[in-house]
Amino acid sequence: MGSLFLEGYFENSRSLQRVRLEPLPFTVGRTSQASLMLDSSGISRNHARFFHKDENLFVEDAGSTNGTYLNRHLLHGPAQIQDGDIVHFAEVECRVVAIEDARQGDSAGRTRAIAPVLSSSLPLGTREYQQLLQQRMVTAHFQPIVRPDGELFAYEILGRGTHPDLPDAPLPLFEIAESLNLEVPFSEMLRENGLMLAQSHGIDVPCFLNIHPAEVTDIPRLLRTLQDFRERMPDLAAVLEIHEGSVTDLKQMREVRRQLDVLNIGLAYDDFGAGQARLLEIAEVPPDYVKFDMALIRDIDKASDARQSIVTMLVKFCQESEIMTLAEGVSRSEEAAACRQLGFDLYQGFHFGRPAPLDDD
User: Fold this and answer.
1) Where is the domain boundary, 61, 87, 122?
2) Which of 11, 69, 125, 195 sits in a 20 to 30 Å window from 330, CA-based?
């Protein structure tokens, strides 16, 4: 493990800052003599200190007014520190990391007693998350996409974690990944793992693939990962889902569309109608599929005539452009019946099947 740093949003900064935990003992407080001086009303002049003992790093509170917390537990004595631990000095949140750069600020002031509300901008579980990445502790669930008669048309691949000390759902895992700037490699790993499972189970219908929004900011890297997939799995049908809100650069999207055609990978615009319906982008760079956001589909059977008319118009617009329409989040038979009446081509949701692992038989 490299040199240890404290990482946090110090001095109300919007950017993450890092301070090297050297030399030891390393003190935290509001005095100018502190190794790390924090200008916060909850910080005591001498708040906490880090020190070595038996070649291990420890932290202890220095008799502060508002306390020091390790992984959101109030310290009552010295506690050993490890890479990835979350430390709060009163309400000021930090994370211990092993990295190579540091920045440090300073200010001073007086201490007032507060009832600390511990922030959570730096999520717990970073050490376990590193293990998840290193050991590829992920799997995938597959949710069916069906035709109006219920016949299977495709699967959407939905990544899951398998680390025993972390959630398996992708959203909290991506929150940790984003705090470490690892959301793109994590998304790539989930996608690769799902495709490998699909191939090993002999899936012979298209697999809809998710990407993280950050991947759209580096299209060449995204396309390289898809080219690598296609070279290793030339016969597996796939469709790339891109959030409708990300389709803003028409020139870039035309190139993405062209490259996907070369790789024989379909294109779907996801969450259509969640915000501004980008009809121009759909007309200029038409996808193969448009997935209507579940907010439009939820309780569509109870919706006003005006709302149903708008959905019908959008469905017809897509179909006239030879784009298949998919209703997402269909959870009740009444919603399914209403979607059939509105003319949707494809359906996805709990009514037709929940995300689940593939059978091994």
Assistant:
1) 122
2) 195
Residues 273 and 211 grouped into a single domain: yes
137-159 tens-digit pLDDT: 999 999 999 999 999 999 999 99
Q: Is 36 exposed, middle or buried (0-12, 13-18, 19+ CB in 10 A)?
A: buried
DSSP structural state of residue 53: E
Q: Please state, in angstroms and rounded to a whole number, the distance separating the CA atoms of residues 112 and 184.
A: 42
DSSP state of 246: G
Question: Same structural domain for residues 279 and 171?
Answer: yes
Specify the pLDDT at position 7: 82
To 10 degrees, what angle do helices 170-179 and 183-200 make? 140
CATH number at residue 49: 2.60.200.20
Residue 276: the pLDDT is: 56
Q: Whole-model pTM?
A: 0.71
Which residues of the chain have a pLDDT value below 70? Answer: 1-2, 11-16, 99-124, 274-278, 360-361
83 within 8 A of 65, measured Cβ to Cβ: no
Rg value, the chain, Cα: 25
Q: Which helix (H) or strand (E) element contains residue 313?
A: helix 305-320
Helix axes 305-320, 333-342, angle to 10 degrees: 60
Domain identity same for 72 and 159: no
Q: Report the distance separating Cα 69 and Cα 78, nearest Å.
A: 11
Cα(341)–Cα(330) distance, rounded to whole angstroms? Answer: 14
Amino acid identity, position 124: L
Among candidate residues 89, 122, 155, the one where a domain is terminated = 122
Q: What one-character DSSP code corresponds to residue 356?
A: B
**Is 250 a member of any domain?**
yes
What does the alpha-carbon distance between residue 19 and residue 27 come to, in Å, rounded to a whole number?
A: 12
Strands 26-29 and 56-61: unpaired
Strand (E) or helix (H) holding 254: helix 250-262
Q: What's the pLDDT at 124?
A: 62
Q: How far is CA 160 from the centre of its chain?
A: 11
What is the amino acid identity at position 235? Answer: D
* Residue 139 shares a structural domain with residue 107: no
Residues in the chain: 361
- Does residue 40 lie in a domain region? yes
On whether the CB atoms of residues 163 and 172 are closer than 8 A, the answer is no
